[in-house]
Specification:
There is one protein chain. By secondary structure, the protein is of the alpha+beta class. Helix content is 32%, strand content 20%. A hairpin with an 8-residue loop joins strand 6 and strand 7. Helix 4 packs across helix 7. The longest helix has 20 residues. The two termini are 14 Å apart.
Amino acid sequence: MKFGKKTIVTSMAVSLALILGACGNDDAAEPAATEETDQAATETEETPETTETETTETEGPKQLAGGPLQDGTYTLEEKEISDKGWKATFSIAVTDGKITESNYNYVDADGKLKTDDEAYQKNMSDKTGVGPKDYIPALNDDLVAKQDAQQVEIVTGATHSSESFMNYAQQLIQAAQAGDTETIIIDAAAPLQDGEYSLEEKNIGATGWKTVFKMTVENGKITKSDFANFNAEGMNKLEDEAYQKNMSEKAGVGPKEYFPALNDQLVEKQSAAGVEVVTGATHSTHTFKLYAEQLINAAQKGDTTPIVVDNIVFEKQ
């Protein structure tokens, strides 16, 4: 998922549905979808109308920007078992510059995988219609198919896990671009350390924008969130009146509404998981949450080094 980029056409299709309600824990039933025009809103939000062109199964879209992945195995794990009794573990294998394996799962204190927990599978399936045996392989397969964390689709009934997967997959891809095979440790239970944290995409996306995100932490709390898009000339999307008018007419919302809404929610909720989807701006919401999670992980470490995302950009199809 590049910010504003159209969904990649790949040879592997994974049947995943988007859930558009608020994020929740996978232990409980997900709320019903409230977005009535998800796909239309996503297209309207970021892409002008274009003529579809055929893409053969063997060719795929052409990569225009983004550093190549270095061959190797890249790993990430959460430091502590959560209060739910699990911690995430994740590894990807890169061969010939492509992600060939994705192994995301959860493990308990005894080393048991969540996908092997039959009781958990039954309980979650009864409540949400999906369990670890369903959504974990689906997420792993989708990453291999899409080769891009931001294009992985949310699994209905497993919103929180899907968003965590996307965040961690993005960090692993960034490590693979740098060839850094040191295990990434996520201290998800650690308090936020005061400081200014920032993230910026290196490349202008296929639709003409890139993300710049700044977050301020004071006294252990997020006090300011500044998520924005800029074009090659340095124009803030908030200042593009034509874009605002066009998107508002088609999706019922524009940058002047959804950017402040997302920023305000992060300060209010103090977590990316608590941020709710803005109707008509689904794609931007998920991008916001993915990058907010990464900034929060940095704040948990107190690492104020600016994060530069060498975002992968594919040719629009």
